[in-house]
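Both lines are quoted verbatim for reference:

——
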Amino acid sequence: MNILVINAGSSSLKYQLIDIREENVMAKGIADRIGFENSVIVHTAAGKTKKEYTKKLTDHKQAIASVFSILTDKDDGIIADLSSIDAVGHRIVHGGEKFSESVRINDEVIAAIQENIELAPLHNPANLMGISACRELVPDVPMVAVFDTAFHSKMPEKAFLYGLPYNAYSEYRVRKYGFHGTSHKYVSQRAAKLLKKDIKDLKMITCHLGNGSSMAAVKGGISVDTSMGFTPLEGLTMGTRSGDIDAAIVPYLMGKLEMDVEQTINYLNKKSGVLGISGISNDFRDLLKAANGGHERARIALDIFCYKLKKTIGSYAAAMEGLDVLVFTGGIGENDAFTRKNALSGLGFMGIELDAEKNQNTIGCEMEISSAKSGVKVLVVPTNEELMIAMDTHHIVSGVAQCACV
């Protein structure tokens, strides 16, 4: 079965065509600058040279039509015709409280995604444009919505409610939702498989670390807590996001800096984090190089990131009353030995001990990096959200699994 995975943004559209039987990527690419004059599609098919197509893409329908044309092109394509696409899986950022699993798309599901636009105003509208375009162009191909929030939907109330008047939740839906769910789900399942353990028997912490970073406490295969909250701004100090701060700081700085709401949101999301602390970069490679060269604020930024990571590991181990497995993923988690080492330094009392050589030499590959005597298995597992979306899509359309609404 060939699954087309679509991740539609406001002015871009990422795609992968995956042979789910072999878990092979047949083709992938991105249509960028949709709606602008200088639109471009960068496409790579298995065994072929990467190609770049410059064409005007006025909307998502035209972008997807162009992708379909490239996929079936006699020279550059990978399939004979569109009948070779058995299903389409769409990444949807926010499912609110409606969905606890992936679901086959119909009019009711689309209406529910629309209802959640106020919770994800930058993402859900774009996701809906991708769905609408596919429904027009390949109306007979089954489609599945895979939600970033769904994996965290089974968190208990004690984990997802804030210390606010209850009507903030009951009337205005203010609660922790969590994000990066597709990644946390994939790496937790993959870790259990690598360890040849039943995921239902494991207490696991998954660390998705990149420019946007989040962590999840996964107990028995279920996310029971996660660091991102009502929005992806909560949690760890990130590349450009502040992470957790005292709420009273917000009006204080609005007054001091004479910022309105939009400017404040931009300040917290795009000018803060390790970029704001260091003053030089949100790229951890730049920060490490600068810190090694004596740049004090770069060192402080790295220390803060690792400290917040370490604190969250401790709190999630307490929440689950134990810890069996710790997983690193994402661009930083998979490639940054320094961060892994420093975040886990001093956690020997929890039974966590790294193999220094394995940790130092592990870059972007699956590897156990804990020592032989470590009581907690520490793994690096590269994430594969597109494959997870394809797997969920296959399960739904083939009837292997049924969708579930909360």
